[in-house]
């Protein structure tokens, strides 16, 4: 079911499954445009009387409206959309602060969105087994510069230049669940004059 | 090697009749030494020398984990059991010397919890008394729901309500009161862990309700010590030792193995911890699996047995001991 293209790597590098509804008191969804179809796939299978338990947050790509219409038409108890992942994740935190044990969280889309949803769920007290993730879309990474702690969104190249401290960073598979970010460490620390070709690898 | 190989010599410092069926026993080290540290939910094994029969029964510690000069347990008298609780009630008096094991905890609080929800049935209250003392001191929110047959049988109900106030809700069967598990488990904030100790039926209902509401298994904790059941005597061959032993009607297989001087691992002695799991070399007959440890497949295979609570009926049982 999952169309993720993630290759097996070190244990820290997250892998993802396919969303599947499990028993729960409430079902919270967070998706971006690449993950919207995953939400539609599982929610439209639910009986009408379960829609009272469904809450959906969505981050559309700018200008896109068709998926907003489709998600709205599912008839969830609550449906809201936000222009940025940050805003949607903040709203998820608000919703989860009132949530009860038995709540399930479903995340679908790019790794940045999924990772930040996981971190928010954990911060709100959700057990990791109550969180399901399905990866769709770009393999672009959210990277932390380990030197100046800047978060760099949508990284597609290896290495990447830190926009804050200008160091050239090797994007590692080493991932922080707490920060929802891959770790980027200086690739030419011993000889900063060394030239390294920047290639697009996370498409 | 097992926890009960290194027993601590203690003196019974106090015996208190809590109600007609429950007595509290307090123990101090014979030398007045500090007893080993423990956390709420831990149990000790008490050795009883009853007219030639040696019994070792597990009991939850109810005293404060922050006070190590003495331990306290509460024992419910069961006249239809094998005689351990009867021995405690009738023979154990202040000043008597006994031996106990160091504490072992199979029912600890999960310290990551944002709230501890405790559900007790009857004598299942004892581990929670120590846990509440611990949670109270740590400043973590907790709530106890304590159900008993009647107020007169509900040990410590009044004192707990006095001590912990709103944290405690009490339910008496004879008043028509009962815990509404569905409502209780539907209204807990994220990060709550639930703990249940009491009769088998209560544990099953809590676990089933929590599971159907979507609680993660890691947030649901329970403890159910089994008293080894009585039964018909049976013969067992211990293959390594090369001996045959007889398990008496009121004796457990574990106790019979110990009485023969054959080494065997064990810890909880109540079918819960898995330490005494033993390989069955040959079995011509039926194993009465009474434990909570082996799964259905393992039971059917007849290749493993938990000697602390399980028994045998048939022609021949041979164990890898």
TrEMBL record, chain A:
Lineage: Bacteria, Pseudomonadati, Pseudomonadota, Alphaproteobacteria, Rhodospirillales
Residue ranges constituting the Dimethylamine monooxygenase subunit DmmA-like N-terminal domain according to the UniProt record: 9-131
Protein name per the record: Uncharacterized protein
Superkingdom of the organism of origin: Bacteria
Pfam families according to UniProt: DmmA-like_C (PF22289), DmmA-like_N (PF22290)
Domain Dimethylamine monooxygenase subunit DmmA-like C-terminal, chain residue ranges per copy: 142-184
Keyword DNA damage: no
Keywords: 2Fe-2S, Flavoprotein, Iron, Iron-sulfur, Metal-binding, Oxidoreductase
InterPro entries: DmmA-like_C (IPR048037), DmmA-like_N (IPR054582)
Single GO MF descriptor: metal ion binding
NCBIfam families registered for this protein in UniProt: mono_DmmA_fam
Record has Mitochondrion as a keyword: no
TrEMBL record, chain B:
Molecular function terms from GO: 2 iron, 2 sulfur cluster binding; dioxygenase activity; metal ion binding
Pfam families documented for this protein: DmmA-like_N (PF22290), Fer2 (PF00111)
Cofactor names: FMN
Domain (FAD-binding FR-type): residue spans on this chain: 5-110
Keywords, ordered alphabetically: 2Fe-2S, Dioxygenase, Flavoprotein, FMN, Iron, Iron-sulfur, Metal-binding, Oxidoreductase
CDD domains reported in the protein's UniProt record: fer2, PDR_like
Record Gene3D superfamilies: 3.10.20.30, Nucleotide-binding domain of ferredoxin-NADP reductase (FNR) module, Translation factors
Iron found in the keyword field: yes
PROSITE patterns: 2FE2S_FER_1, 2FE2S_FER_2, FAD_FR
SUPFAM superfamilies: 2Fe-2S ferredoxin-like, Ferredoxin reductase-like, C-terminal NADP-linked domain, Riboflavin synthase domain-like
Domain named 2Fe-2S ferredoxin-type: residues: 234-321
Entry keyword Transmembrane: no
Domain of life: Bacteria
Protein name from the UniProt record: Dioxygenase
């Amino acid at each position: 079911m999952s169309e993720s293209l993630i290759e097996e790597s070190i244990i820290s590098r997250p892998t993802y499954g396919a969303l599947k509804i499990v028993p729960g008191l409430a079902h919270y969804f967070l998706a971006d445009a690449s993950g919207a179809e995953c939400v539609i796939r599982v929610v439209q299978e639910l009986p009408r009387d379960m829609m009272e338990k469904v809450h959906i947050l969505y981050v559309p790509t700018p200008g896109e409206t068709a998926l907003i219409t489709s998600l709205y038409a599912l008839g969830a108890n609550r449906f809201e959309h936000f222009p940025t992942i940050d805003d949607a994740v903040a709203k998820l935190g608000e919703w989860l602060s009132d949530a009860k044990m038995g709540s399930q969280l479903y995340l679908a889309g790019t790794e940045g969105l999924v990772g930040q949803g996981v971190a928010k769920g954990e911060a709100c007290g959700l057990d990791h087994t109550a969180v399901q993730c399905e990866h769709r879309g770009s393999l672009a990474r959210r990277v932390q510069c380990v030197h100046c702690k800047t978060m760099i969104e949508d990284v597609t190249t290896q290495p990447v230049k830190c926009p804050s401290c200008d160091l050239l960073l090797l994007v590692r598979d080493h991932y922080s669940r707490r920060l929802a970010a891959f770790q980027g460490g200086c690739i030419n620390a011993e000889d900063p004059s060394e030239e390294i070709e920047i290639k697009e690898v996370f498409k | 090697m097992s926890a009960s190989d290194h027993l601590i010599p203690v003196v019974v410092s106090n015996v208190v009749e809590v109600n007609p069926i429950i007595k509290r026993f307090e123990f101090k080290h014979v030398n007045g030494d500090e007893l080993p540290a423990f956390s709420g939910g831990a149990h000790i094994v008490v050795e009883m020398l009853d007219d030639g029969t040696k019994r070792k029964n597990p009991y939850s510690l109810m005293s404060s984990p922050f006070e190590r000069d003495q331990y306290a347990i509460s024992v419910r008298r069961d006249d239809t059991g094998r005689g351990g609780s009867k021995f405690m009630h009738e023979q154990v008096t202040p000043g008597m010397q006994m031996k106990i094991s160091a504490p072992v905890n199979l029912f600890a609080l999960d310290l990551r919890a944002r709230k501890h929800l405790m559900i007790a049935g009857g004598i299942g209250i004892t581990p929670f008394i120590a846990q509440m003392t611990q949670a109270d001191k740590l400043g973590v929110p907790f709530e106890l729901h304590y159900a008993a047959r009647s107020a007169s049988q509900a040990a410590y109900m009044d004192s707990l309500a006095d001590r912990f106030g709103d944290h405690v809700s009490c339910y008496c069967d004879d008043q028509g009161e009962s815990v509404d598990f569905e409502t209780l488990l539907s209204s807990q904030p994220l990060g709550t862990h639930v703990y249940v100790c009491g009769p088998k039926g209560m544990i099953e209902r809590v676990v089933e309700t929590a599971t159907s509401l979507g609680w993660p298994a890691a947030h649901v904790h329970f403890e159910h010590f089994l008293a080894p059941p009585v039964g018909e005597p049976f013969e067992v061959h211990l293959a390594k030792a090369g001996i045959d032993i007889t398990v008496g009607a009121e004796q457990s297989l574990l106790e019979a193995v110990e009485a023969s001087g054959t080494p065997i691992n064990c810890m909880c002695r109540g079918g819960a911890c898995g330490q005494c799991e033993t390989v069955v070399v040959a079995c011509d007959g039926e194993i009465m699996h009474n434990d909570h440890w082996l799964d259905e497949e393992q039971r059917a295979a007849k290749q493993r047995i938990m000697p602390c609570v399980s028994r045998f009926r048939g022609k021949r049982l041979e164990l890898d001991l």
